[in-house]
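Hi Y.,

Following your request, here is the sequence exactly as I used it, all 328 residues.
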Amino acid sequence: MMSAVFAAHREQHPPGEGIAELWGRLAELGLARLTGSEESGGSGAGWPEAVELLRAAAWHGVRIPLAEHDLLACWLLETAGLAVDDQRRTACLLDDDGVARGVPWAADSERVVLLWRDANGHRVADVDTASLAVTAGHNNAGEPRDDVRADLAALSGTPVSHDVVARFAHRAALIRAVQVCAVLDRILESSVAHTRERTQFGRPLAKFQAVQNLVADIAAESALARAATDGALAEALRSDWSSPPLDFLVAVARSCVGHATSVVVRNAHQVHGAIGTTLEHRLHEFTMPALSWRSEYGSVAHWDDVLTEYATRVGSEGLWALVTGAGE
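Below is the corresponding structure, written out as tokens. Let me know if you'd prefer a different format.
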């Protein structure tokens, strides 16, 4: 059902258009707040269902703030014991100056859930977007990524523990990993189909060994990224996002996803040739989001640095236990 909804929407609208119409449809189906508690008006589903929803949207090239609304903003409100209604939301972590940069869909949301640090810890507040200073922007895929500024002195929020902040960071990081993996799989499918259908010198591109190698590398890197992401997600759900090794596993997933994207995007454009660079071909609808998403909620370099710090901390004698989880 989910794929049918997204496929129908994509056939009728270019990327980024018709969001309000699609959002209304998803809300009617109980998908806009899929993981929200039934007591607060949600559908009471879990992360496995939410992941499939995110994958379906990314696979069809549909850009909509499902994750930001359900898995981040509304989750923060429920965790803090605050009321949730049907208004569309996004969420962000403010710095000490009350600024958050590159916030997804801020200008397009009715409310923004703010998370910030004060002298006593961290606080959460549900704020009307109109009361914030929002500077519109976008990422390289054309999705809204806005700068948000709030007056910290004027905010009165609900206290939350440091664990909530850590979970917010891990949830956001894995959300992007899931979305990138979905588009990498779509890029693989497109590349396989193109090599079978396109002929050169009287035979399909798939018959050329050099092309086969390019596609094989796309498949291998996509599978590695997906395995690392699924592993981190499995540990997160097993431990309710509280496992000590989770931070390491999230870093592994994001590093694998980031480096896989480089190989997949480069090889896919080589396989597709000139046609893959045109606006008429759909390849850019997946390669551009992959390149943009891999740098959100932590760049590739950031997650590589996290892994380096872990490896340096445990040293050569502890590295095997770190990688295999034998030291848990």
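Residues 162-197 form the longest helix (36 residues).

Thanks again,
Q.
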